[in-house]
Design a protein that fits this description.
By secondary structure, the protein is mainly α. The protein contains 4 helices and no strands. Helix 2 packs across helix 4. The longest helix is centred in the last third of the chain and has 20 residues.
């Protein structure tokens, strides 16, 4: 079998003489902007425990993300209850974001 040689004029399309200038600072991620604008309203549908577990587990409160074991030691609540709060809170957030 003969090796495939790349064409000399570029791959897969020839380079154009007029390069497109992209300003990455000017590009906006619509999803990120939506989440940023929702801010605290995003969490208003959550119970206080759900809010606490989600923000601590994912580090949304500005601290490093914590494991469920660390949250168990911090709160003194059973891990099963923390898992239920995490799952319930994430389900509510998915529903809220899907609307």
């Amino acid at each position: 079998m003969r090796p495939y040689l790349w064409p000399e004029d570029g791959w897969p399309y020839p380079d154009t003489k007029r390069a497109e200038i992209v300003d990455l600072d000017a590009m906006i991620d619509d999803d990120a902007m939506m989440l940023r604008n929702m801010g605290a309203r995003l969490f208003e549908f959550l119970d206080p425990l759900e809010r606490q577990v989600i923000t601590a587990h994912y580090g949304l409160d500005g601290t490093p993300p914590r494991t469920m074991k660390e949250l168990h030691h911090e709160t003194g609540l059973p891990r099963a209850e923390l898992r239920e709060a995490l799952a319930g809170g994430l389900a509510k957030l998915r529903t809220t974001l899907a609307e």
